[in-house]
Amino acid sequence: GKIIAIHGVPYAWIFRNTPLILPAVPPGDTLTNIGFGTVMRLAGIRIEPDAATLTATLFWHALPPIEDDRGDCYEVVVEDAPATVCPRVNYAVSVRLLAADGAVVAQQDSWPAGGLLPTSQWRVNDYVQDAHSLALLPDLPAGSYSLAVVVYNAESQAVLAGPLTVATVELPAP
Hints:
Layout: E1 2-6, E2 9-14, E3 21-22, E4 30-36, E5 40-49, E6 53-62, E7 74-78, E8 81-85, E9 91-98, E10 104-110, E11 127-135, E12 143-153, E13 159-171
């Protein structure tokens, strides 16, 4: 980072930023092609486990219908003229780590990109980088787990798609 100072007084701090909208799934990440309704598809994934946390970075590809995905329209008056407003739906993402018996052992729900890039702002063909950190219990046994994703409307709780298994994760012994 860099600090901008005037007469020795710091006024601005500049930090390196990670882009959230990409032209494609980054090289070296695992390509997937999993549709979530007709609205979006999971184009890629990066999984980074450590002793206490599993970070799953999802790379979403916005499909054309996301522009047409609207909530209930309503009438308003803007500057004495009637207008129809049709809000776009913002979907939440739930990432879940599942044991072999299907039990959820870790879960993290959030808006895409930590709320910085809600689905209502996605443009067709955007690739959106969406990182989720799941806290792992210290006594979680080593072994094979499934990573599942659910996309849902947080307001109505209506599920767009999922849970869909998107990866298998091998966790080492603590």
